[in-house]
Give the backbone structure.
Amino acid sequence: MPKHTEKYTMSHTAEHLFDLVADVGNYPEFLPWCQGVRIIKDDGNILMADLIVGYKMFREKFTSRVEISRPDTIEVTYLNGPMKYLHNHWGFTDNGDGTCTVDFHIDFEIRNKLFEKMMGGFFTEALERMVHSFEKRADELYGSQQRLHKL
């Protein structure tokens, strides 16, 4: 089913970008289609959260386990909701010059065939908007920068 891997360099530190992705509770403030988050458990390294995602007439809640391995890796595993499975990986490498290489991977399959069919044509655009939303949020929080280049 849908898979996407992207690697790029950004003009923000690995620490800043890691903190931004790890701050799941604030996703509704800047991520498109994220309508709400409820943190179920947070022990600092393992986070469990319900995310409510909506687009047009569709609205779904799903539960994920987020493993936060400071300073460089965040792994998201699907627990419950409308998908058959979901795995999401974020890797952050500090380049030593104020930039960071971000390694992003997502792999999932949606249980609802109608929603999956609709999402299929929309998948690439949705991921680009999501990554752009993280970039824009980083610029707002840490100063306006730009993506240097895709690797």
Notes: The chain is about 25% helix and 50% strand.
